[in-house]
């Protein structure tokens, strides 16, 4: 041993001595690593899995966002997009753009009913897109096998062309050449839309896409005063022109608040938001997997160090200071951790490539395949912190145990806690891990809540394990041998019950929580909402047709109730004079500041309206324009009664003072409006009516035909179809989240496998002795099954509790709905936990039952 | 060693005169990379109820293997062995386990206590598997009989070597077996503890009337048995009565 180490006073450690100690530690570490990593494969696997999950999510999100960024022009359909809502661009705007040599593609979008003029004249709500001759400015579109789209849509035989998504053709039984009706005009089907490059920028939300030429739109009669139509102008700038500069100049030239302008850098803000929010949740789920894996790290390190007790004791007996022991094994663990983290990064970096192959049809934008250092570095940092957090305690205990105690059995060996500086550092590492997760999250409050919930769940299971051990210790002696032995195994010294319970429980808690939340959402969508929802929303009802609409709808047998209100589109452009883009709104209320909102006017409050602040205006009010506003939005924006909203309606800014706040129950699916203005101002504006009709299911087909045949310009949104679409989306989201959540279960399985493997020799030895003493194989197996069955059952019950609490919190505070108890899901959770635990127990026990006693009992 | 108080219990035994152990042409062969190894080559002997038999021989002579065969922990390659009227060759693994807990007690050189069970639990195990409701009270009695009434809740690692072997002995006799097998029971003990354990073995044997088969390297210890069977190279080279 180096004399410098022994002779240096403990308080005077020169850099030279420290360097020498480190050099010796590294030499010893390399010697031990020569024999490989047989006891640390679980540590490597646990780290690799957790790091791979985080790196994979981050890399995939980066690939999607980079894909959006680098392909922004194609996605947007131009360098810049100008939208005036439901107004076409005035001539001066077109001249201004033309003067700057901007090439413009005009796109008009609205919803309409497409009626097949063949067979049973089936009809379908579609998202109509009328495009000009220069569309698309970027990317290639293809319809019916032709890339010259405008030419393909040109009239032939007197009928303009129409292309539709394959879904439309299939639903309506259409083939190229068939005739369809849009509004009052007939069209000729040219074929399917094969490629629509700017689809993501203006997604088809309520129905499949249908494409026509812009010059065919007027004949359809769909564009009427107040129609819910949107005019977008995609602009391709000359080379070298900065889009940001162009936008600044445009806003300065046209300060009209109703102008919405975005560059290709904001081509798909919805996709970006979705990706960021999804990446946040999936990253946190990956972090949970890393936390569970951390348990495997701690256990693996402890087992590995226990196997080296004699080596450590020998070194200490030979004079190695505790610091040298710590450094030697810390260095080895550092190498192992680097290996595990490295493996995780390799797998994580490969995720975009795998996703490009496997998810190409599902992803809204093409992935930009590449290596993204930032998410990889973040994942590596998570891995390092997790490894350090979970390995420090067993390392410190190995450092502090006196040499003589290392020669005793596991039961007799004193197991001191590490010293308080180590505990402080360990706590600091744990906080750093949580702090990093919060610091890098888009939504820090959510991340903090998630971390707290994860830590709380880990702690809950740990406490539950102690509770189960205490309960098992009180089991009476007169139980059957298998039952007593199985329960006694739960609280024996060195038992791995706590480890298995935590690892299994956290994994299944994650999956069960996702299932319960999804189940509650689906119940809302498929059962609760349809029970009180209308059968149809009818939009674009012209004022002069309103009474006729009422008569037609009421004449259909099975129609219970018709509600109809005037409807305009408005954009909130300022709040108390602050421009909308500068308003500090909470994440869950910021949506209302983007895009158009529904606006209506009324003399009386809607039936069932809950006014929570202020008061309604008199019926004959003709004073300053006032508005009834959504109470939750007001809370999110920090405004209240007396504040002013500036809305742009058809190009005109109107100030509306908030007279009262309403608590809106959107779940009723009734005619709810964010903004209800006082009468006297908007009646003169061109508006349409929107109506809801409540009808028996068997009346829906007849009602749809009656209205749309008589009023071709009216569009019908079948609520059942919309809810089914939402249900389908929930299913896909739930599957994706469950897939990621299952990584936590895999991490738990690794931990359990490690625990079972670590205890294998002990189990075999115990089984041999028990058989020698007269236990049949059935009795030995039964004892183990009781042990693991009890663990699984207890873990399942706790997991069911956690899942119930999580889903209750989401239902109550996020969905603001009544929580639904799902006994099937909870029962499946408990059964899965029990079954998995028994399976693991069986895998660890089978070899013990087969062991030959003589081999283990011989003296020679 | 304090005086031992142990309540003798009547035990059914083979019919008067019928041997408790009947071994005929016992052979045991193992395969190895160097070819087959004949550990026992046609060993035959009888042991009468209540006898104390010492098995001696050099290392590798087959002593421990013979003990394993008598306990049903190994199956002979050839020959037969009957213990307490049970043909061990005809029993399956579970039947052998039931046989052992009813008729055989084994004391190993390495004690082979279950480290995560207390002394009381270790001793109670055979009776628990036999479904005895008084398993733990009997275990306490057995531990008291070997002078360990004050160590009921101690784990093996908290006991000295001599104490661990006494626990193992209590475990071996708690079910009052007809046959007690002891394989070098003092091999891991110092002289004083070893002598104490041997005294206990013979004392319990005398009180219970148990048949004892004791494997030992110690000629003096073998002399305490009434009969000595010497093994060499897998064969019985002598079988003589002493004293």
Q: Strand share of the residues of chain B? A: 25-35%
The low-pLDDT segments of chain A are 1-8, 409-414
Measured distance between first and last alpha carbons of chain A? 37 Å
* Secondary structure: helix percent of chain B: 25-40%
Multimeric status of the protein: heterodimer
Report Rg of chain B. Answer: 17 Å
Category by helix and strand content of chain B: alpha/beta
Largest sheet of chain B: 6 strands, mixed
* Beta strand count of chain B: 10
Can you describe this structure?
The complex is a heterodimer of chains A (860) and B (243). Chain A is of the alpha+beta class and 860 residues long. Helices cover 53% and strands 16% of the residues of chain A. In chain A, the strands form 2 sheets. In chain A, strands 2-3-8-5-7-6 form a 6-stranded mixed barrel. In chain A, helix 3 runs antiparallel to helix 13 (373-400), helix 14 (420-439) crosses helix 15 and helix 17 runs antiparallel to helix 24 (823-850). Chain A is elongated. The two termini of chain A are 37 Å apart. Chain B is an alpha/beta fold and 243 residues long. Chain B has a domain at 51-74 and 92-228 and 235-241: Rossmann fold, CATH 3.40.50. In chain B, a hairpin with a 2-residue loop joins strand 4 and strand 5. The model of chain B is unreliable at 1-14 (pLDDT under 50). Chain A binds chain B through residues 408-413, 477-478, 480-481, 484-485, 488, 492-495, 762, 766, 769-779, 853-854, 857-860, and chain B through 59-60, 64-65, 68, 71, 73-74, 93-94, 97-98, 100-102, 106, 108-110, 112-117, 121, 125-126, 128-131, 133, 135-136, 155-158, 171, 175, 183-184, 187.
């Amino acid at each position: 041993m180096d004399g410098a180490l022994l002779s240096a006073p403990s308080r005077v450690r020169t850099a030279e001595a420290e360097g020498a100690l480190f050099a010796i530690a590294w030499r010893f570490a390399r010697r031990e690593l020569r024999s490989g990593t047989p006891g640390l494969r679980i540590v490597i696997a646990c780290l690799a899995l957790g790091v791979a999950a985080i790196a994979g999510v981050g890399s995939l999100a980066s690939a999607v966002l980079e894909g959006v960024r680098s392909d922004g022009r194609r996605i947007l359909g131009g360098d810049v997009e100008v939208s005036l809502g439901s107004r076409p661009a005035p001539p001066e705007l077109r001249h201004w753009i033309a003067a700057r040599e901007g090439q413009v593609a005009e796109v008009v979008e609205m919803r309409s009913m497409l009626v097949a003029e063949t067979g049973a004249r089936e009809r379908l709500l579609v998202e109509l897109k009328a495009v000009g001759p220069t569309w698309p400015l970027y990317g290639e579109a293809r319809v019916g096998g032709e890339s010259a789209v405008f030419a393909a849509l040109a009239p032939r035989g007197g009928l303009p062309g129409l292309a539709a998504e394959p879904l439309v053709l299939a639903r309506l039984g259409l083939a190229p050449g068939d005739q369809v009706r849009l509004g009052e005009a007939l069209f000729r089907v040219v074929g399917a839309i094969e490629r629509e490059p700017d689809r993501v920028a203006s997604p088809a939300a309520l129905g499949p896409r249908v494409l026509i030429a812009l010059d065919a739109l007027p004949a359809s009669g769909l564009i009427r005063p107040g129609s819910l139509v949107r005019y977008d102008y995609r602009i391709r700038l000359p080379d070298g022109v900065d889009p940001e500069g162009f936008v600044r100049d445009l806003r300065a030239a046209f300060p009209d608040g109703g102008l919405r302008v975005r560059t290709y850098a904001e081509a798909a803000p919805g996709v970006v938001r979705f990706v960021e929010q999804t990446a946040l949740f999936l990253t946190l789920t990956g972090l949970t997997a890393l936390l569970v894996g951390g348990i495997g790290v701690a256990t693996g390190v402890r087992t590995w160090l226990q196997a080296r007790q004699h080596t450590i004791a020998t070194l200490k007996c030979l004079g190695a200071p505790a610091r040298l022991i710590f450094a030697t094994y810390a260095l080895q663990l550092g190498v192992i951790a680097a290996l595990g983290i490295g493996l995780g990064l390799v797998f994580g970096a490969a995720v975009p490539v795998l996703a490009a192959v496997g998810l190409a049809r599902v992803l809204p934008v093409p992935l930009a395949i590449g290596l993204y250092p930032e998410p990889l570095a973040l994942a590596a940092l998570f891995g390092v912190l997790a490894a350090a957090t979970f390995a420090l305690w067993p390392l410190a205990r190995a450092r502090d145990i006196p040499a003589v105690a290392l020669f005793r059995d596991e039961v007799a060996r004193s197991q001191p806690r590490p010293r308080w500086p180590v505990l402080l550092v360990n706590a600091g590492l744990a906080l750093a891990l949580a702090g990093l997760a919060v610091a890098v999250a888009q939504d820090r409050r959510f991340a903090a809540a998630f971390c707290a919930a994860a830590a709380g769940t880990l702690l809950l299971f740990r406490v539950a394990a102690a509770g189960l051990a205490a309960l098992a210790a009180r089991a009476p002696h007169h139980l059957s041998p298998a039952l007593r032995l199985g329960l006694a195994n739960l609280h024996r010294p060195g038992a791995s019950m706590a480890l298995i319970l935590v690892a299994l429980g956290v994994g299944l808690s994650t999956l069960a929580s996702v299932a319960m939340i999804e189940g509650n959402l689906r119940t809302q969508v498929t059962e609760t909402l349809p029970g009180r929802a209308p059968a149809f929303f009818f939009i674009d009802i012209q004022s002069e047709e309103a009474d006729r609409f009422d008569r037609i709808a009421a004449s259909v047998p099975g129609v219970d109730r018709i509600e109809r209100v005037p409807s305009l589109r408005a954009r909130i452009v300022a709040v108390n004079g602050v421009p909308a883009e500068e308003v500090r709104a909470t994440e869950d209320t910021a949506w209302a500041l983007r895009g158009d909102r529904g606006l209506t006017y009324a003399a009386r409050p809607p039936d069932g309206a809950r006014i929570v602040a202020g008061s309604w205006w008199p019926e004959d009010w003709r004073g300053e324009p006032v508005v009834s506003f959504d109470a939750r939005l007001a809370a999110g924006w920090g405004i209240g009664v007396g504040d002013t909203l500036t809305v742009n309606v058809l190009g005109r800014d109107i100030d509306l003072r908030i007279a009262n706040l309403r608590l809106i129950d959107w779940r009723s699916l009734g005619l709810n409006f964010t903004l209800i203005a006082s009468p006297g101002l908007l009646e003169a504006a061109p508006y349409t009516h929107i109506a809801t009709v409540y009808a028996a299911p068997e009346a829906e087909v007849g009602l749809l035909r009656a209205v749309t045949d008589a009023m071709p310009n009216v569009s019908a949104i079948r609520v059942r179809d919309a809810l089914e679409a939402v249900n389908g989306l929930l299913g896909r989201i739930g599957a994706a989240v469950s897939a990621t959540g299952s990584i936590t279960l895999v991490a738990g399985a690794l931990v359990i496998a490690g625990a079972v493997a670590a205890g294998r020799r002990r189990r075999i030895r115990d089984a041999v002795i028990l058989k020698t003493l007269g236990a049949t194989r059935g009795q030995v197996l039964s004892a183990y099954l009781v042990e693991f069955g009890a663990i699984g059952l207890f873990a399942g019950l706790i997991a069911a509790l956690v899942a119930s609490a999580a889903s209750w919190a989401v239902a109550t505070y996020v969905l603001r709905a009544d929580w639904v108890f799902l006994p099937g899901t909870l029962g499946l959770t408990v059964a899965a936990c029990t079954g998995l635990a028994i399976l693991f127990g069986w895998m660890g026990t089978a070899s013990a039952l087969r062991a030959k006693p003589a081999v283990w009992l011989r003296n020679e | 060693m304090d005086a031992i108080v142990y309540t003798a219990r009547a035990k059914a035994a083979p019919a008067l005169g019928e041997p408790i152990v009947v071994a005929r042409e016992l052979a045991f062969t193992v395969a190895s990379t160097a070819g087959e190894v004949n550990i026992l080559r046609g060993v035959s002997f009888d042991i009468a109820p209540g006898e104390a038999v010492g098995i001696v021989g050099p290392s590798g002579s087959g002593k421990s293997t013979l003990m394993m065969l008598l306990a049903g922990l190994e199956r002979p390659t050839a020959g037969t062995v009957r213990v307490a009227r049970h043909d061990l060759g005809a029993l399956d693994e579970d039947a052998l386990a039931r046989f052992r807990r009813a008729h055989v007690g084994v004391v190993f050189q390495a004690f082979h206590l279950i480290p995560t069970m207390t002394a009381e639990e270790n001793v109670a195990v055979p009776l628990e598997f036999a479904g005895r409701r008084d398993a733990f009270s009997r275990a306490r009695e057995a531990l008291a009989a070997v002078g360990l009434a004050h160590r009921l809740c101690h784990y093996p690692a908290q006991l000295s070597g001599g104490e661990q072997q006494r626990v193992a002995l209590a475990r071996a006799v708690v079910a009052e077996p007809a046959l007690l097998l002891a394989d070098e029971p003092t091999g891991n003990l110092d002289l004083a503890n070893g002598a104490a354990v041997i005294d206990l073995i013979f004392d319990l044997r005398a009180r219970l009337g148990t048949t004892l088969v004791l494997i030992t390297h110690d000629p003096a210890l073998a002399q305490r048995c009434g009969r000595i069977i010497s093994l060499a190279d897998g064969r019985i080279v002598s079988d003589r009565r002493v004293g």
